[in-house]
Design goal:
Layout: H1 2-22, E1 40-45, H2 47-51, H3 54-66, E2 69-74, H4 77-85, E3 91-94, H5 97-105, E4 109-124, H6 138-148, E5 152-154, H7 160-171, E6 181-183, H8 188-198, E7 201-205, H9 206-212, E8 219-222, E9 229-237, H10 247-258, H11 260-268, H12 271-274, E10 280-281
Length: about 290
Amino acid sequence: MNTLSSYCKVIAMGFFVLVCLLTDGCCKQPKDSSKKSGQVLRLATTTTTIESGLMDWVIPIFEKRYGISVDIKMAGTGATIDAAREGKADVILVHSREDEDKFVTDGCGINRRDVMYNDFIILGPPDDPLHLKKEPDVLSAMKVLYNKKATFISRGDNSGTHAKEMILWKLLNITPKGDWYISAKKDVLTTLKIASEKKAYVLADRSTYLFHKEELNLVIVVEGDSKLFNPYGVIAVSPSKVTGVNYEGAMKFVNFVTSMEGQEVICGYGRLRFNKSLFTPLAIKSSVCK
């Protein structure tokens, strides 16, 4: 019965999203969505939301609902926030809470809201030469990486993933350096490919890894530690602080991704291909994701 129930949920969610994409029948349509508004919304977001495929799933539904064209700019969280400060974005979707809070405290961002989460994992060669799978937690595993000077590929780009890695090293009072520690300064997918080619270890988000798993010679060696929790927040850029901002469009996006409809769309991503959601809603605890 459990298997049948899970199968039915997958089919139901796939049907729900398909209908939302092709018709207006399953979701109440906003009053201003009957025709193109001519608006362009500049969304700056992290590489993980793009390279996991999530934005290809969410954005077409948003555009159809509101008649707004979305111009997506992809970068690490640090570069994304910098772009917003410079007036190059109307809304951001990122995953580094300390940087997000500073962006809001500085007055550049307003109306920050929780959206979703996934988790970070440490990946390595299939034979896992350091036997990190046997380590009790992520800090123990990273201490082994450091002591053995095993090749480790860091994002090194001030992204949310890089920020999480630096937090973990700091908890160990370790400053990683040396030939074993390679700073890629690249997006998550490129970093994963480098790690795969070099038979190295790497920290990445689970969703992007699963989406590209078949093209990578990497396996999960560390997972499930609460320190690897990876929440995402959406923030509108403040029109009183940054000139030329499409605040109206930004708030429509903020409200959409945190609404019941948006949260169910996020929850549905990955279910048909992976039989599970690649991201879990945070704004609304939807029963669809259970």
